[in-house]
Design a protein that fits this description.
Layout: H1 18-24, H2 27-33, E1 53-57, E2 63-66, E3 70-71, E4 78-80, E5 89-94, E6 101-106, E7 112-117, E8 128-131, E9 136-140
Antiparallel strand pairs: 1-2, 1-9, 3-4, 4-8, 5-6, 6-7, 7-8
Length: 141
Amino acid sequence: MTAVLPEPDDEPIIVKSDDEWRAQLSTREFAVLRRGGTERPWSGEYVDTKIGGAYHCRGCGQEVFRSRTRFESTSGWASFYAPSSAGNVHLRPDLTGKFPRIAVRCSACHGHLGHVYDDAPQTPTGDRYSINSAAVRFLPG
């Protein structure tokens, strides 16, 4: 699994006020990206997307995942075994749930994308990046 870093001491490249984020994002997107929310399983737009392309952070547009690393996990969220580039996501401790998790954030705007788990032995990395559809935008191609 990719190394988990402590909370970022770096500033996001893209900085906006909550009002600016709210003007840009839907209520659901804001709750996930800016407040660390999680969609209900099987409710996301991209849970069953099977065509090739790239997934970009819905907040800032940075590419974060590619469909070539996508796999069927039956978890209810779009699942990937690796980001498109290790530098495009940050992994941070998340102690807000019932058990400790590792949050996946966009490295450019620090938007919350989802969580990563080391429970996918069927993949080349063993990792399952469980990503909220509300946090990303899919561009085919």
